[in-house]
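Entry:
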Amino acid sequence: MRYISLLLLFSSQLLLAQVSGRVIDADSGQGVEYATVSVLSAVDSSVIGGAVAGAMGAFKMSKVKGRDGWLLRASFIGYDDSFSEVFAGGASLPPNFTLRLRSGAQILEEVRVTGKQLTDIHRLDKQIFDAEQFTNARGGSATDAIANLPAVSVNSAGEINVRGSTGFTLMIDGRPVQTDPATVLAQLPANAVEKIEIITTPGAKYDPDGKAGILNITTRKGTTDGWSLAANVSLGAPRIRNYDNKAEPRRYGADLGATYRRGDWDIGVGLDYRRDDNNGRREGYVNTLTGNVLTEFPSDGERSHDRESYSARLSVAQQLSKTQSLRAGFLAGKRTVWRTADILYQNQRRATVNPAAVDLESLYDRFLASGDVSSEGEEINRLTYYNENLRVRRGDFLIGTLDYSADLGNDRKLSLSGLYERTILGGPTNNDVFGGPTLDVPLQQQFNTNDNPLDGFRLNADYEAMVGNLKWETGYQFRYLKHPGDFLYQDRDLENNVWIDNPEFTNGILLRRDIHSAYSQFSGSSEQWQYSAGLRLEYFDRSVELDRPATTFTLDRLSLYPSANAKYRMSEQLSARAGYSRRIDRTTTFKMTPFPEREHNETLEQGDAELLPELTDLVELGLIGNFGDNSLFATAYYRRTTDVINRVNTVYNDTILNRIYTNVGKADALGLELGATLYPTEAWRLYVGGNVYRYAIVGDLFGDRIDTNNWIYSVNATSDISFGKNLDFQLGINYLSRRVTAQGEDGRFFNPYLNVSRDFPKQRLAIRLQWQHFGLGLWDNNEQRITTVRDNFFTTTNYVYETDRIRLNVAYRFTRLKGEVRKVKSEFGDKEF
């Protein structure tokens, strides 16, 4: 009996039957998922057990060895470690035991940090990147920041691709934005971006929109009571290289953010203004074959963009009680883009030919060799003319949001949110053609404009609770969009000097769309596993009404969107993850407008009122490694998209191509995404990210079989060298290889950059000198060639944009507190802009 008693006593000091509780944020009271919980010996602080917090910060351990007492430690990036009291050996935790983590921001000046800053973090369903590492973006927009991510590439037109797809959903501070990401990101100052999350296999609780997943931009937030005021000013130097543009580029901007936080109130305001002109040129060649008539028309001239935007934001939040909070937000803004395309068409030639004997692509090779059009066939005529084309795009925005959240106790939470947006879009295009000996005789004058007021609503109700050891999330969402448009197209009667409506292109459209969604999702974790699975049911109803002829096109669907993610910790340094998600891409009203708009002299642009949404299934497998200060990851993925939408060309007449958006077929992408952050020396950080994938399109286009593929890759890399604590030198490059399209290919595009940063902490001042798109004429950077070809046309255009741009950015913080301005963003209108 004595031996049994000793054995029981010894066992009680070695085993803890149950160690469970929660890790929460001390300020918000919300659970901190993925926090590390360690069991420490009370004698020597050695680690004798551990777990990773799961849903709502819950953790559980069993059979944890203890000796002479033990305690718990909770830790997570951005927080100070939290310790429990010391428990006697064999003791168990009290019911509802909680460890509270507090932000470590206030002690940074008192603690010497010996480790390296983590610039990328991998979670169950996302990658998180610290925006601080991308100093080339300072003073610019959020687009400049995300262009550095491994999965992201930006082309010459400013289109943002995630793993080769422009179809992704943008979120600002966790709020989905049903708008064009490129336009929204161009409006958001890079100085306001704290972190960037890439969610490639989103769970069911997220909108299913976006075949490439979700980009979530986290803006900078305050952590203490008081007021905060910060300002940033950006000045661009005069152009270095001459592109023979009519006007000198203007580049300058400023943003101001202020917050006040006291007691239950949290108020933030923001003002920003940005002028960012981009000079450039357009070098083109087109030939068409209509019947037996061959027409060739090379061109060259200005292609520049002048961009101006300004906005004001207000955010007001109140903590109604310990368990309830309310937040309201407003945004009012304007933005304008002037695109100038003043092109000289030198020596346009028409000739009758034998169609069977003409190779359209080889005619371009001959043009490159000789500098002139061919002498094929019997010449009909030649003409040199000058095209002045100005396309103006304007947008006025007024957006309001309201959010309510309540902690219902017993690990239950309710959230309600609503959004209303009023957007007015429009802007004319003037297209004038001149001929004669001095190219000043009007040959054609055209004008088209549109008025597109947009109203959008969004309502969300979300509920979460613990079911056993699993976190359960469920909710309902309603979205409604009403988007009418009046399109006026006029030709000038040059003899009578009057404008006449063109009935072929003048029309009206009304798009209505409503979406009802319900979802349910479970997630949980153990010592080595993290996992989640969910299902979203969505009803989608769309109608497109045309004025002439009076026609209505409708589409409705009831669809399921499953998702699942799992992560397995193989060791302290290595983890594996897997994920699956089904997504949808609903196109914009612009791409569904079936009557042409004059883009410029050789191009009309129109959509398709019966466009089907793209449906995508994505599977991925990955490895994540952290070795000391260095980190590595690799993710293999496969993505299949049905009813893929492509922008394609047809021949409208012998000198005009019709640019059309249409469903082509199926597109497959099989790829590998890689990333590494390395520290070769104490003062040198090397970040390399890349994506390589095989892209294939199979389908039918206007009766022709499409079957094309190629390997595509992109590389984003930066090298940072620190000279002391406050001086930093950064060299980087963004590179995108050539890519196939349904009708041709887009050429490679790359941009190197150089930055020098100097911080003055005591003066709360930071200065950044940026050399953007640097080239010095040594290489052809910041330009891209776009080529399309079919049996009856060939077109290739090289877009050459300004290089060697110098910019100075100055940031000053009036207080030592971090500011918090949660920026309200457009849900609907930006996408149409």
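The first strand starts at residue 19 and ends at 25.
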